[in-house]
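Researcher: Good morning. I'm working through a list of sequences from a screen, and I'd like to move beyond sequence-only analysis. For each chain I'm collecting a predicted structure so we can compare shapes side by side. This is the next one on the list. No need for commentary yet; just the structure.
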Amino acid sequence: MNQSEFELQLKKILKINNIELDDSKVQNFFEYYKILSEENKKYNLTSIKDLKSIILKHFLDSIMGLKLFEETSKKNELYKFDIIDFGCGAGFPLVPYKIYNQSIGKLNKIIFIDSNSKKINFLNILFKNLKFKNNHKIMTLHSRLENFNSTDLSSKLILVGRAVGEINKILSNIINFLFKNKIEYAIFVYYAGPNFIIPENRIVKFYQPSKNIKKTNDVRFEISGKITEYSYQSKKINRKLAVFEIKNLK
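Model: Good morning. Structure tokens for this chain:
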């Protein structure tokens, strides 16, 4: 696949979906596709291999979800809070959205977490080749979210997930992570399929031992979520975006 063929296919699909990219962003997507295709021959990064499907199911799908979140939230969280893409695999959805919107990560950190070391190694190779002005704000980590400890995170976070497991287990892992790292508030943006059913709002309690052995500190997290349905590619592809707010009630 030469670059001109790639650009033709990319621009055709983006035009249908009212997405515009300048030449530098198109170049970054070509580098992404080229490196993904090369590294996928060595180890399994994605089962999707043909160009059109990669553009539709990986690049465009990644853009559309976070674009919808940004348009509906209107609070500029993507520019203020640190962002964690966990179970990030080959970088979907956050890398394509970062290429599309390079304003994220100027003031906040962007962190990619995956338990598969080969996928983290791939991302390290990728970021050496992509031309971002603020690469120093990007961090990759071979870990699971619930095992990640840091003293250098913003007190409010955005977490992003796409095809990372059963939703109640995911929310449980997020709560464990927030509790461990003393995070006050998080937004979890979850890319869901058309049949996804959002769990009921609830309060989760944790008991943190205190110095007084006869007493424990009751820590409570409130989880509330909402679903937005959307479609793209001339309404041929239907998706749901679940956005959860998770608050430490203390």
